[in-house]
Automatic annotation (TrEMBL):
Assembly and binders: Tetramer of two alpha and two beta subunits.
UniProt name for this protein: Phenylalanine--tRNA ligase beta subunit
Organism per entry: Shouchella lehensis G1
Catalytic activity: tRNA(Phe) + L-phenylalanine + ATP = L-phenylalanyl-tRNA(Phe) + AMP + diphosphate + H(+)
Gene: pheT
Family to which this protein belongs: Belongs to the phenylalanyl-tRNA synthetase beta subunit family. Type 1 subfamily.
């Protein structure tokens, strides 16, 4: 909503308040002012000039040499190329030394050898947008009308109100009462405690009755609660006076003709959309408001033929549509220069119906924007009379006696009971009932005291006031939010902290990021092929109703395919060293058609590929491999206190390398997978050698032990023993480690694998595994005999369990 400061002064006295102060006050009270536009755009020294004589430029067919009186001793010569310039016109002249919008400075110049001492200006050159310029001035200079009381030398910026400032209001959907000038005046009246002056709307009617020429029929009262038609004859359609055009342009509306401009003017003034029909173009003396027929055609004012449906409301002449109700009029019944009698429509249409009609036609207008939010039904007639008054005054129209009205409005009075104690408690104020009553008076909300409450009557213009809390807000903003005292909260306070699940998520991110993996985020949607490929057969893909594409048509069932996509994208962009992870959700169901919500399962997945370590100076280079990724995952479990509960078991799974894949077990239950990506999948995705893992983290929430236990530095020395064992190739090192730890008892503190050998000098099907064992007693120094005894038990356990032999 654009609000002209100059225009606003006609409804409330604000001469002593600057636009900047108004903007600050309104913004603090809840209606944000986005911007203050200066209409002159930096223009200076623009005066009225009278073109005394004109002759064609001797060396240019499209230029004229004009002698212009600008109120100085002698006329000045100005070369002008506008096609509509002529002698006897009053025009806007930028004198030598003047500045135009865009910081254009006017200087003396010679155009094709002729001296030019200034510039005759168009409206565009004065800073008015081209879309707002009246059509007859769109391609030429601006000419003051014959009835304009101007003289050579008068200041154009003052005459055309271009020194005005325009406030741009950013209204929320509930404040439709400020979508017009009078509504903004009411708002300022409440803020500054000043009276509102309503415009003149008293019409002089002739004896001839309107109902003798017109009849109105409304099919559905809910669709059209109120419809009124006024008939005005002997109208002389022509340009609007300058003051009316200037106000419309300041509000962002292009002037057309006096009749049409009046309807737009009243729309901005009262917030009530009006429409003027050419009475004779209607073809009948009948207005019939009904639902459109399916596939009924109709041409709107913009010249576009539109196909209607029964969801839309139309105004007809009893036979065919002449307007799309609440949105736009029809081309065949528009007011033209030849119009002499008009039918002025003022109505109320169902907001939802107007919104639907506007959306179906992809056609939004100033009228539909106001009807959608609901108009002030109590002032529809007043707005119509105001328009009739202006048409009578500006176009010489004669208003026929009476009006033709169909009224189905529900006349009910809305009241809200406001309890002072509850309001003060909610706002933190200590206002008295007389202070609150004064605020209601400033808002022009009638009220009376009933017992200990204040009963407030809500006028039709304030549709946003529905419950008592709405009145609390009105009191707070008019009293001033800055005037509400600050108080500390009362009650028990608790220290905020993260939940156990948040702590686990944070720990996962911290460990993986510290290991060099980058956090990525991918879509929760995927393709049906990927959704079924990377999940167990019992699960079914969950299809969404309106997918953006087939590639994003189902909910994902695994994080891995998106990591493969990200890796492929990076490889294509020559980023071949890739270390990434994602923490997100997958969505699982066993149903073909959903009857209950799917299970949302949180998971973490990671992928590494390329060179992990590259120290060029030391000549050290390390490629990613299975054990590097396994070490990262083990570090994750260690940070959660789960090292002793997690084991890795070799397995085979589709899309993973058959010999380099393991199931991750937590207390014997599988929670994820880790391994090398299958070479066939690497070729399919165009990946280098890659390794990936995926974990379900719900079990980690339940099992994680984040308590940190500190252990002192050992006081007593340790004793080390190394053993090299020959065992069957199929025996996992992890199983050997478990046997060693169990047999070593409390004295065995650490077991480390330091060698693995297969090949020459070993039997077929055998491998050599070497471990370093560390023994220590926490309270004394161990003897060699004690260590040897315990070490013998370890060797015996390995022999008994896996038939291990010492390598000679």
């Amino acid at each position: 909503m654009l609000v002209s400061y100059e225009w606003l002064q006609h409804y409330i006295e604000i001469d002593d308040i600057t636009p900047e102060e108004i903007a600050e006050k309104m913004t603090r009270s809840g209606i944000e002012i986005d911007f203050i536009h200066n209409r002159n755009n930096g223009a200076t020294n623009i005066v009225v000039g009278y073109v005394k004589a004109i002759e064609q430029h001797p060396d240019a067919d499209k230029l004229n040499v004009c002698q212009v009186d600008i109120g100085e001793e002698e006329p000045v010569q100005i070369v002008c190329g506008a096609p509509n310039v002529d002698a006897g016109q009053y025009v806007a002249v930028a004198k030598v030394g003047a500045r135009l919008p865009g910081n254009v400075k006017i200087k003396k110049a010679k155009l094709r050898g002729q001296l030019s001492q200034g510039m005759i200006c168009s409206l565009q050159e004065l800073g008015i947008e081209g879309k707002l310029v009246p059509k007859r001035y769109a391609e030429g200079i601006y000419v003051f009308s014959e009835d304009a009381a101007v003289n050579p030398g008068d200041d154009v910026l003052t005459i055309m109100a271009l020194n005005d400032q325009v406030l741009e209001l950013d209204l929320t959907a509930n404040r439709s009462d400020c979508m017009h000038m009078i509504g903004v005046a009411y708002e300022l009246a409440a803020l500054y405690d000043r009276p509102v002056k309503l415009p003149k709307a008293k019409v002089r009617e002739i004896k001839e009755m309107a109902e003798e020429h017109m009849s109105v029929q409304v099919d559905h009262a809910k669709d059209t609660p109120f419809y009124q038609a006024l008939v005005i004859k002997n109208v002389q359609v022509g340009p609007s006076p300058a003051w009316l055009q200037n106000r419309l342009m300041a509000a962002g509306i292009r002037p057309i003709s006096n009749v049409v401009d009046v309807t737009n003017y009243v729309l901005l003034e009262y917030g009530q959309p009006l429409h003027a029909f050419d009475f004779h173009a209607l073809g009948t003396g009948e207005i019939h408001v009904r639902r459109a027929y399916n596939d009924e055609s109709f041409t709107t004012l913009d010249g576009i033929e539109r196909t209607l449906s029964e969801e839309q409301l139309v105004i007809t002449n009893g036979k065919e549509p002449v307007a799309l109700a609440g949105v736009m009029g029809g081309l065949d019944s528009e007011v033209t220069d030849s119009t002499t009698t008009i039918v002025l429509e003022a109505a109320s249409f169902a907001p939802a119906l107007v919104r639907k009609s506007s959306k179906l036609m992809n056609l939004r207008s100033d009228a539909s924007a106001r009807f959608e939010k609901g108009v002030n039904e109590s002032r529809i007639g007043e707005a119509a009379r105001r328009a009739a008054y202006l048409i009578q005054d500006l176009a010489g129209g004669q208003v026929l006696n009476g009006d033709v009205t169909v009224d189905h409005r529900l006349k009910k009075e809305t009241t809200i009971s406001l309890n002072l104690e509850q309001m003060n408690h909610r706002l933190g104020t200590g206002l008295t009932i007389s202070e609150v009553a004064n605020i209601m008076g400033r808002l022009q909300l009638p009220c009376e005291k009933v017992d200990h409450d204040l009963v407030v009557t809500i006028p039709e213009r304030r549709k946003d006031l529905v419950i008592k809390q709405d009145l609390y807000e009105e009191v707070a903003r008019i009293h001033g939010y800055d005037n509400i005292p600050s108080t500390l909260p009362i009650g028990t306070t608790t220290q905020g902290k993260r939940s156990p699940k948040q702590l686990v998520r944070s720990q996962i991110r911290s460990v993986l990021s510290a290991a060099g993996l980058a956090d990525v985020i991918s879509y929760s949607l995927t393709s049906p092929a990927k959704a079924t490929r990377f999940v167990e057969d019992v699960y079914r893909p969950i299809r969404i109703d309106k997918p953006m594409s087939e590639e994003r048509s189902v909910m994902r069932t695994s994080l891995l395919p998106h990591l493969y996509d990200i890796a492929a994208h990076n490889r294509n962009h020559r980023n071949q060293d890739l270390f990434i992870y994602e923490l997100g959700s997958v969505f699982l169901t066993t149903e073909e058609r959903l009857t209950v919500l799917p299970r949302e399962e949180e998971r973490v997945a990671g992928l590494i590929s390329g060179t992990y370590l590259n120290h060029m100076w030391q000549g050290e280079k390390k490629q990613s491999d299975f054990f590097l990724l396994k070490g990262m995952v083990e570090q994750l479990f260690a940070s959660l206190g789960l090292t002793a509960d997690v084991t890795f078991k070799q397995t085979e799974q589709a899309d993973f390398h058959p010999g380099r894949t393991a199931t991750i077990l937590l207390k014997g239950e599988p929670i994820g997978i880790i391994g090398q990506v299958h070479p066939a999948l690497e070729d399919e995705w165009h990946l280098d050698e890659s390794y990936a893992f995926e974990l379900t983290i719900e079990p980690l929430f339940n099992q994680a032990n984040q308590m940190v236990l500190y252990q002192g530095v050992p006081k007593f020395p340790s004793i080390g023993r190394d053993i090299a064992l020959v065992v069957d190739q199929h025996i996992p090192v992890a199983d050997l480690t478990t046997v060693i730890e169990e047999a070593g008892g409390s004295l065995l503190k650490q077991v480390n694998l330091f060698d693995l050998y297969e090949g020459e000098h070993l039997e077929d099907g055998k491998k050599s595994v070497a471990f370093s064992l560390t023994y220590r007693h926490n309270e004394r120094t161990l003897t060699d005999e004690e260590v040897q005894e315990q070490h013998e038990q370890v060797l015996q356990a390995l022999t008994d369990t896996y038939q291990a032999t010492l390598r000679s």
